[in-house]
Each structure stands twice: as C-alpha cells, then as structure tokens.
Design a protein that fits this description.
This protein is of the alpha+beta class. Helices cover 26% and strands 40% of the residues. The protein has four helices and six strands; from the N terminus they run ααββαββββα. The protein has a six-stranded mixed beta sheet. The longest helix is centred in the first third of the chain and has 17 residues. The N and C termini lie far apart (39 Å). 23% of the residues are buried.
Length: 155
C-alpha cells in the first residue's frame, strides 16, 4: 500500500511538514513525481479546470510547467483539522512572451489514511508584475530554508 508521510490526523507540526513537502515537490516541477502525492482517484478543481485521477494530474502539471517558466512557489499553512489542510500560496512565473506574473491562491486539501491527497480545490488569481517586482529569486528547485515566508514578505 502506498503511503505518503506524514499521515493524518495532522498536528500543527505534521501539517506544516506536509505543506512544505508539497511546496518542494511543485518547485521541482516533475509532473510524474508530484502526481505520486495524490491518490489514484484524486479529484481536483484548479481554477476552472477539473482533474480526475493521478494520470490527469500529471498531464495537467506537465502542461502547466510547459507554459509557466521560471516557476517558483511559496506555500503557507492556513488551517488544519484531522485529515484536511488549508494553505495559501503565491508563485511567480513568466509566459512565452516574457510577461511576469505573481499568482495568489488558496487550496483546500483532503487526505486518505495513507497520506495521499484525494481532493484538491484551488482558487488562483494572476497579477501581472514587472520583472523588477519579483520577490522569488532563488535558483530553480527547492526554496532555501532562509527564504522569507509569505507572511514575512507581507503577501
């Protein structure tokens, strides 16, 4: 049986850990690896897109990261209880035309007993920014531990 630590029910410590693991995965931008955090029958709403199942999640992520260049994400725990976690986040990217954006979002997550995400509901808004307004400058990949949080950045 697949398991993805930490497992519910979550404490503040394990919910925070789960959020950071999700952030690290998404910053790695590997659709197949990221999709393993979701149950085989996961259900998503991402903006106006509905995703059903791990395979669709991997395909969705591959398409996302093919269009969102220089993608860097910061997630922050908002709330948790039992097998559910709410997060807020921001990420920056540019499109093929070199236009920069900062996307702000909230997600509601639900996990099965094995720690795999069964439901993901995401609401996201994109704000066009100038390249000079970027706040996320670390090398592509995992966000360094000493990088300010969303709250510390005033986002």
């Amino acid at each position: 049986m697949e398991q993805r630590q930490p497992l519910p029910p979550f404490t503040h410590e394990t919910a925070t850990q789960k959020v950071r693991l999700a952030e690290d995965g998404w910053n790695g931008r590997n659709p197949e690896a990221v999709s393993k955090a979701y149950s085989v029958d996961t259900k998503w709403r991402n903006r106006a897109t509905f995703v059903n199942g791990r395979d669709e999640a991997a395909a969705f992520l591959a398409g996302k990261w093919a269009k969102e260049h220089e993608y860097r994400l910061v997630k922050e725990l908002w709330a948790f209880k039992d097998n559910r976690i709410a997060v807020r986040y921001a990420y920056e990217y540019h499109d093929d035309g070199g236009n920069w954006f900062r996307a702000y979002g909230n997600e509601n997550w639900e996990f099965d007993e094995n720690g795999l995400m069964t439901n993901r509901h995401a609401s996201i808004n994109d704000l066009p920014i100038n390249e000079s307004e970027r706040l996320f400058h670390w090398p592509l990949g995992r966000r360094p531990d000493d990088t300010p949080s969303l709250s510390e950045l005033g986002l």
